[in-house]
């Protein structure tokens, strides 16, 4: 009976390590600019005079990319559903002025991942982003199964080893994460158009939409919608795609650009490397 419980516990522990990596992947979904030059499609169309409206959208979004990227930091609030696997919310602040830094509270609200977290006493975790790694605080019950340490460290160079094929290029994407990456993604796609004027939480905003390359053979039908305020700042993003685990939908709101962001590295004595746990090298 003892070995069977140990195996089951180890499997559950590894599953949660991978779940935290999946959360990282979902939160950064809009960073996969698949090697296209910014505005490539838009420039070609504008140069040939085929679509003046689309060329106007491209010109507007270039200004948005500059303004949003130059803001350096923002508060973000998002809600994500990934098929039947999980639903989650994220809330906090991120900075990209000198590498990625920031802190988010991630709460799993539905699906097998939420069930597993609930069995360990909490469906929420704190996530900290630092230039070299992503840290996830998994809670007391999880720490009791992993040698008493609460924080999991995902070095960006190790993410692929932890998350498998889904982690390919994720470390590089994490280093470039920022709201304006969604704008660049639309510019690179060459398929963007203005929808109209709408209100986002009381603020008048211009809505743009486009279909983009997934950058992953397991993802199809990917679309990105963005809303821009009168300061050329991104205030809302909706991303949709079909994945192997079901339909991915993420809605994010951005506000308070330029907010001060201070993120501390968790104590080394309270931190474990996620790769060690997945590889079974830690002896926990």
Task: Describe the fold and architecture.
By secondary structure, the protein is an alpha+beta fold. 33% of the residues lie in helices and 34% in strands. The chain is built from 9 helices and 12 strands. Strands 7-8-9-10-11-1-2-3-4-5-6-12 form a 12-stranded mixed sheet. A hairpin with a 2-residue loop joins strand 4 and strand 5. Helix 2 packs antiparallel against helix 3 and helix 3 runs antiparallel to helix 8.
| Total number of helices | 9
The strand order across the widest sheet is 7-8-9-10-11-1-2-3-4-5-6-12
Shape: globular
Give the helix/strand class. alpha+beta
Strand content: 25-35%
SSE order, one letter for each helix or strand = HHHEEEHEEHEHHHEEEEEEH
How much helix is in the residues?
25-40%
Question: Which radius of gyration do the C-alpha atoms yield?
Answer: 20 Å
Q: Note the gap between the termini.
A: 19 Å
